[in-house]
Design a protein that fits this description.
heterotrimer, A mainly alpha, B mainly alpha, C mainly alpha, A: Four Helix Bundle (Hemerythrin (Met), subunit A), 9 helices, about 65% helix, C: mainly alpha, two-stranded antiparallel sheet, 5 strands, globular
Chain lengths: ~240, ~110, ~400
């Protein structure tokens, strides 16, 4: 069937936009423009996340990155009142040529691996036989939520248990690869409920550790950036 | 190029997302290597982290496994924490030296 | 070469087929035009309402009751001289009003303004995008409103504008936190981020389960405000701060900072800033009605009952419009709900105007203290309280 879905057109359009925007981040000399282009890059990336059936991650990207981190960058640049960088970005010295070449080689390597190294059927075969565990435990009786029990000791969900194939089952795996196609994930995939089921059962330690990390980062940033004598005294 | 191979080339699969993520990552690397302004270097690092996020989410969708999105959640949080601490350091450096151009901080150069 | 590649317009999200694509595009245009034309009406309400509160007459010369005053103002704005200050950054100076208007227009996309209508077999959602993470999408896009303010302040080349912009920016990002946290209690109750689910949960009478026993009080509507009153107070307060409205409008205050971040803007660009601000106000009022007051649904009357009412009484319209009775009933139900939504949102918009002309402005440090030291802890208290009540209600 020869067709091009609208999702493909959107992907190619936004892919071109995001690459241009990222190049402008690196190549414009005014740091404020760099920061604004990076904010644009992050917003376009959130559009990609919506296309990839990850709505929660997409709005988190907009809120955290485009709405907070980049605002922080822009405020810092405005407070510094940085004038344009007077050095040229591309200087054609041997060191610069070496840097650009190495970045280009890395780009070529990553494109090669991305285009040829990953076969779509291999990625999808791993879970195509096991049904995706869906978030159906929330009982929406009016007002008071009733949630089914979640086993915190359970390392692997039912789907992954079915996936765990050791070498003895290689034949079964090869057979599975034969008739695989990319299918749309079920509706509940990527929803907040299914993501949080994973986060609060399998990754709960990481979740708590990250909150501690954020506390440390907050205290550290305030301690580093604070002026001598606090905000109510005249600094020397 | 035949019709089917053109369609296979243009119809979006996981490979397209991986290539896009690779390009963004290498643009970030170029930024870190080339630019002299400390803030722009921090911004390029954020760009690299975003490219990695795209990779994770693409694998999550095409592999039908939500763990990729959980990983993205953590990467985002850590990147935000790192950006804030990095900027706090940059602010402290600016206050002391009135300069964020890294070529001015080459005291340790042999 | 491209002859055989046929375009298939459609993914599940955009709607399969050209017809749905066209309907969605039409919805976007209609909603955007509706928001942009509600803004002059709001400004009229503000000017006449404030005049009434201050015991004077407002605009009453142009048109009946001064309604055409805003048209005259708009025409004046279009013909005003467009100037650019000397030290301004020209590109950013032009972009800033657009950046201020863009999030205000985008946030309204997830708000359902009426029940879905079914005509001739097609069901059309009265909502531009039925995103299942609706409410956090709205917060995410609303947090992008900071860019318009920042670029406006920076590009004006004026230190008062810059100070105003930085103050506005830190105010907005501080109150985003309190606003998000104040809603977590509400979200625990509704168990969904989607605004449609929230409206569906608020239909019918006030009821709840306590230790397995179902209690109901059918004379009170099941609105969010009766389940989460503290959250309502916190959310409304943060809504004022987010939209930079009085009493939180220090960044725009004339006495303190000339004009704040839009000092150097005149004419049509200034108008766009105000459209952005009023657009945020409209979305904020729409959110308050959807989260706490049942959205487009009537109190205690479910949409099915309204549809049944119109099936009984709508027969007279079916003939002239050449539609079946079911279609007419669906259409009239949607219009009824649209009117209800309009009334509720209109009341909250009037509330915004009312508070602006009643309360004095906060000083900047009082404002930040309120956000961080009062609203944030109370949001956490609300969350803890809600979680505790739900936990004990479930224990049997």
């Amino acid at each position: 069937m020869a067709f091009l879905t609208s999702e493909d057109i959107l992907f190619h359009f936004f892919a071109a936009a995001i690459v241009v925007s990222a190049l402008l981040v690196v190549f414009v000399s005014n740091p404020i423009y760099s920061a604004l282009f990076l904010a644009l890059t992050m917003s376009i990336l959130s559009i990609f996340f919506f296309m990839l059936h990850a709505p929660f991650v997409a709005v988190a990207q907009l809120t955290v990155y485009a709405g907070a981190v980049m605002v922080l960058f822009i405020m810092v640049v405005m407070l510094f009142d940085l004038k344009r960088e007077h050095e040229e970005v591309v200087k054609f010295s041997p060191v610069m040529i070496a840097k650009v070449t190495s970045a280009a080689l890395l780009c070529g390597f990553l494109i090669g691996v991305g285009w040829l190294g990953v076969n779509a059927t291999q990625v999808n075969a791993a879970t195509v036989l096991a049904p995706q565990v869906e978030a159906k435990d929330l009982d929406k009786s009016h007002g008071i939520p009733v949630m089914g029990p979640v086993n915190p000791d359970e390392d692997l969900t039912a789907a992954e248990e079915a996936n765990f194939v050791d070498s003895k089952d290689q034949v079964k795996k090869e057979a599975a690869l034969e008739k695989v196609e990319i299918k749309l994930p079920p509706d509940e995939f990527g929803s907040t409920a299914s993501l949080s089921k994973k986060l609060f059962s399998k990754y709960v330690f990481a979740f708590e550790a990250v909150s501690l990390l954020l506390l440390v980062a907050i205290v550290g940033s305030v301690a580093l950036a604070k002026s001598k004598g606090g905000t109510h005294h005249v600094s020397r | 190029m035949s019709q089917d191979s053109l369609q296979a080339f243009l119809h979006v699969g996981i490979n397209h997302y991986l290539v896009l993520s690779g390009i963004l990552f290498s643009i970030g690397v170029l930024g870190v290597l080339t630019r002299k302004n400390a803030i722009v270097i921090l911004m390029s690092i954020e760009l690299m982290l975003n490219a990695v996020n795209l990779d994770f989410v693409a694998f999550s969708r095409y592999g039908n496994n939500i763990d990729g999105q959980a990983m993205v959640f953590f990467v985002m949080t850590i990147a935000a924490a790192e950006a804030s601490v990095g900027l706090a350091i940059a602010v402290a450096v600016f206050k002391r030296f009135k300069e964020v151009n890294i070529s001015k901080f080459e005291n340790l150069k042999g | 070469m491209f002859g055989r590649v046929t375009l298939w317009i459609g993914t599940k999200e955009m709607g399969s087929g050209l017809l749905e694509f066209a309907i969605n595009a039409l919805k976007i245009v209609i909603v955007f035009v509706a928001i942009v034309s509600t803004v002059p009406l709001l400004v009229w309400v503000e000017r006449r309402g404030s005049a009434f509160m201050q015991n004077r007459l407002g605009p009453n010369r142009v048109g009946p009751l001064g309604l055409l005053q805003l048209l005259a103002d708009a025409i004046k704005f279009i013909f005003k001289e467009e100037f650019i200050p000397d030290h301004a950054d020209k590109v950013l100076y032009f972009m800033a009003p657009g950046l201020a208007l863009l999030p205000a227009a985008l946030t309204f996309a997830a708000v359902p303004f009426s029940s879905p209508v079914t005509i001739m077999g097609h069901t059309i959602n009265m909502q531009i995008a039925d995103i299942n993470v609706g409410i956090i999408y709205i917060f995410a896009v609303a947090s992008l409103a900071v860019y318009g303010v920042l670029t406006a302040g920076w590009s004006s080349g004026n230190k008062y504008s810059l100070i105003g912009a930085l103050r506005a920016c830190s105010q907005m990002i501080s109150y985003e936190i309190a606003m998000g946290l104040s809603l977590i209690g509400v979200l625990i109750m509704y168990q969904s981020f989607s605004l449609n689910d929230m409206i569906a949960s608020q239909i019918g009478g006030f009821n709840f389960n306590w230790h397995g026993v179902h209690h109901a009080f059918k004379y009170l509507p099941a609105w969010g405000i009766f389940y989460q009153p503290l959250s309502f107070i916190l959310f409304v307060t943060c809504g004022f701060a987010e939209t930079n409205r009085m009493p939180f409008d220090l960044p725009e205050g004339e006495a303190e900072l000339v004009g704040g971040y839009h000092t150097e803007y005149g004419g049509f660009k200034f108008n766009m800033f105000f459209m952005g601000e009023y657009g945020h106000m409209i979305t904020s009022s729409a959110l308050i009605t959807t989260l706490f007051f049942g959205g487009y649904a009537l109190p205690l009357i479910s949409p099915e009952q309204v549809a049944a009412f119109w099936i009984d009484h709508g027969a007279g319209l079916a003939g002239p419009l050449h539609l079946s009775i079911a279609d007419v009933s669906s259409l009239m139900t949607t219009l009824t709900h649209l009117a209800v939504f309009g009334l509720k949102t209109g009341f909250w918009l009037f509330f915004y105007v009312w508070v602006r002309w009643t309360l004095p402005r906060f000083r900047y440090d009082q404002l930040m203290d309120l956000g961080w030291k009062t609203l944030l802890p109370w949001s956490l208290v609300n969350l803890a309280l809600t979680a505790t009540v739900i936990f004990f209600a479930r224990v049997s």
